[in-house]
Amino acid sequence: MKRHAMGFRQNNYDVCERVYSPAASVASKTTKVEVACTGEKAVAGAVKFNRRLMKIAGLGLFAIVFIFAFIGWPSSVIDNDDTHRKILAAVFLTGISLVALEDVIRLDKSAIMLVLASVMWTYHAAGYHPTLSMEGHHELQEELSKGLADVGSVILFLLPAMAIVESIDHMDGFAVVTAFIVRHTREKADRLMPMICFLAFFLSAVIDNLTATIVCIKILQRVVPHKQDWRHSCGGLAVVAANAGGAWSPIGDVTTTMLWIRHKISTAGTVTWLFLPSFVAAVLPLFGIWWQAKRCGPQHEREAEQKASAPMAASRESITSLIVGMCCILTVPVVKMVTGLPPYLGMMMALGIFWLISEITGLGETAHADEESVTIEIQKHGVPAALHKVDLSSLLFFTGVLLSVASLESAEVLSRYAEFMNDITNGSPLTLSILLGVSSSVVDNVPLVQASIEMFHKPMDDPLWQLVALAAGTGGSMLAVGSVAGVTLMGLEGVGFLWYMRRISFWAALGFVGGVGTYALQRMAFG
């Protein structure tokens, strides 16, 4: 009996040793780690497979359409107008989707848009049969010239505008503004966002929303260089505020300028009726983006950084470069109003004047002693040195977007869509403007506004024209690709399409609805 009890205790001890031994514990942990690693590998494999699938699907569609256009077959796909428009729209939406998924599929958006523009124009050109018909050749050349003129006017405006802003930044001109902002946000970094909002709102009314966005981005890059998420939130707000600020000024946005030149709106009527709705469209997103950024970002780190940083001392040269540069930019709307010349000529003249002044006065000139000799070597300075900093990939992205939209306009896709909007809204100004604003967040608002001008024959300062100006200006903020200002943010700051949708789009849509609602209330109250 005793021997049996001892045997039982021994067996029990052996079992416990097997269960609680360190070797068994290590083996169990190893098994769990192996299972976890296997799961991670499976997830990674699935993500990689989906990434490849999206690339193949999107780029495969591009390749198929290009091959059809290249060989001119089948004729039902090439020559049928309705099918032609549907395929162009499908290819465009596919390209926009690839841009939206840039961070997932790991393809640069500039490359995507350049290929998209080339494929769309190749397919569109096939419908003219330019190699078989002289008439088709002339029609295609006319459409290409028109599209190139529209695209070139934007690019030739963008290039000198970015060059001036980069030159001011290269000469430390923004140190003045940076010092002011740092001094007033040192105790509380939250103040940066409303300051950027109001700066973009009022600056865009004086120059334009694109240049105002570029200026605000450069200031943000100097004030918060190490806080990317906070800077992106401020940049997104700058886009919303700049687009809203451009809506109440005849020279603030290209669509309001179009309506103003065609005598659809007047300066006094636009400012009187659209200032408050535009202000609401900018301020409502300010509160939402402000609150969201404070929740998502480490606020104490931002405040600590602002407290630790001292305001930069602005030199006489930096102050001079800022004043001269801004004065040159401010001449652009003056030249446009007085002479009627397109804005890109005014901006090119502004760059030339700024360049000459910097050369004559020696702004940005630096000299350093060679370490191996006593001679003084004069380096590249001023505007030539700043030109190397202009982001060419952003300009190529703009080119691809604008050329793609130009092909849609040439194929009458956008004008047909404008007619469709008019039919389903029965000509209601409020409903039509809301649809126009939502549509302008996906495609360029310029052809939509142009189609509206051609379709409707209302008198000057009619509520329809004012609502079109408000909706087209503020509606483009709902998506990053909906306005040139948003595309600029994507290019200069590397903001992704999906990030913009998550963090900015809802608040921009709220501001859009608030602005249109404010205008409707104004009309109800004051007629």
From TrEMBL:
Keyword Signal: no
Domain Citrate transporter-like: 101-473
Top-level taxon: Eukaryota
GO cellular component term, pick one: membrane
InterPro entries: Cit_transptr-like_dom (IPR004680), NhaD-like (IPR045016)
A single MF term (Gene Ontology): antiporter activity
Membrane topology reported for the UniProt record: Multi-pass membrane protein
Residue ranges crossing the lipid bilayer per the database entry: 56-75, 87-104, 196-220, 273-293, 314-335, 390-408, 467-492, 504-521
Any single GO BP term: sodium ion transport
Keywords of this entry: Antiport, Ion transport, Membrane, Sodium, Sodium transport, Transmembrane, Transmembrane helix, Transport
Pfam families: CitMHS
Predominant place of localization: membrane
Location(s) in or outside the cell: Membrane
Signal sequence, start to end: none
Transport recorded as keyword: yes
Annotated family: Belongs to the NhaD Na(+)/H(+) (TC 2.A.62) antiporter family.
Protein name: Citrate transporter-like domain-containing protein
Species annotation: Effrenium voratum
